[in-house]
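S.,

As promised, the flavin-adenine dinucleotide run. Input:
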Amino acid sequence: MAATAAESLARDLRRLVGDDGVLTGGQLTPYLVDATEPRGVRGRADALALPRNAEEVAAVVAYCYREQVAIVPRGGGTGFAGGAVADGGVLLALERLDRVLEMEPLRWRMRVEAGVTTRRVQQLARESGLRFPPDPGAPEQSQIGGNVATNAGGPHAFKYGVTGAFVMGLEAVVPPGEPLRLGGSTRKDVAGYDLLHLLVGSEGTLGVVTETTLRLIPAAEAAYPVLALLPDAEAAGLALEAALASGTVPAAVEYFDDLSWEIARRGFPAELPGGYVLICEADGSAAEAASGRDLLREALDEHALQLYAPTERAEIAALWRWREGVSFLVDAYRGGKLSEDIAVPLERLFDAVARTREIAARHGVECCSFGHGGDGNLHSCLLFDRGDEEARLRAEAAAQDLLGMAVELGGTISGEHGLGTLKNGWLRHQWSPAAVRLHEAVKRTFDPEGLMNPGKKLA
Ligand SMILES: Cc1cc2nc3c(=O)[nH]c(=O)nc-3n(C[C@H](O)[C@H](O)[C@H](O)COP(=O)(O)OP(=O)(O)OC[C@H]3O[C@@H](n4cnc5c(N)ncnc54)[C@H](O)[C@@H]3O)c2cc1C
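Predicted complex:
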């Protein structure tokens, strides 16, 4: 956009959201990247708007629609798909929509604006003896609106489900600037199509989420993790099956291949040797959690070299704090990391781990994988020295092969992070032509001018 056009855009936006609600030029820098920055993904924007409420969001969307300017919704910028990275147009940041509108502990629900962080939602629930189970790994920065827009998961999605399972209601602004209320406080609603869950996971391509009503559950009285150290991938696969057949429903089933464990165990709160690792957790009332833990121990012990099953609250908290930091430890290993999130049928998980290695070796890059084993969801990491452009390109080529492998194994190219810009062109490899046509028709219906987060998800 020419300088004069950009100035007049900023001037118009200031009229809608106030002088302090518009950033331009160098002020945009921190907003031009997300967690894909190590992959070299960096965007550009003509301005950033910081609305304070849904009305201002609607005014910005209406203005952009009238003026044919692209709108890129932005939450906490922790996305791993480049979804919040703009290629021109207006970045619409939700961080000032950070009010908790209603907390109803006795009815197990809360209503919050889109910019409230994931951590705050979790804490508010906990303070009332309740729980918001989705636990994606960057909760201090990620926002509930971003979690809804990516349908985020995390370790405890195995038992409890991903974000969409906890969204009862949404308020959004859809083109050409109309507020839309979907669902609300009812626990059931089968009138009409499920538009609410069409917006969930839509990565900002259909509208801007401004508010959500979340379903909460009573917090478990106790939760006990059991870590199994395993000699190889085969034993890890058998242990995973044994955990599922143990007689308890694990709240989480996380896996680490030998290299990811080698990298991450340095920060682990107990001294343990190398190998493959499975971390399962039993939760419920104190008695249920304890008996679940015993069942898991018994099931895993058959295949494990060693078990680690902390029972002290502080030790358990340290274990999950460490788990939240694993991604950062892997980042630090070589300085450069390309993190994929394919998911495959459970029985193909360790096939996928092995094939990830073959692919990485073929492209001459190092790799490790860890993730949400119970969901068949691999965080396959292709590792390279930061600044080594040639190695990064080889890692990018390997990532393309990983996506092909996921489809071949009957899985998905994205179990958690969404498609953003990074998986452009891949939707049609996973979905049939009829399904892709329907996707395109849905997009046209919501956004006939193609201005909502263009170039993402469907491109
Ligand atoms: C260390 C680390 C660990 C992670 N672990 C997990 C994990 O375990 N599970 C998991 O699922 N993800 C994980 N993630 C990815 C990321 O945290 C999630 O995708 C998260 O939901 C993104 O939220 P955000 O607010 O940062 O969104 P952003 O990155 O700002 O945006 C993501 C997408 O959502 C859209 N968007 C954001 N807000 C809105 C809104 N209000 N309305 C409409 N569209 C919007 C954007 O346009 C973009 O397409 C991890 C990321 C990091 C850095």
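The two ends are 22 Å apart (CA to CA). The first strand starts at residue 22 and ends at 23.

- D.
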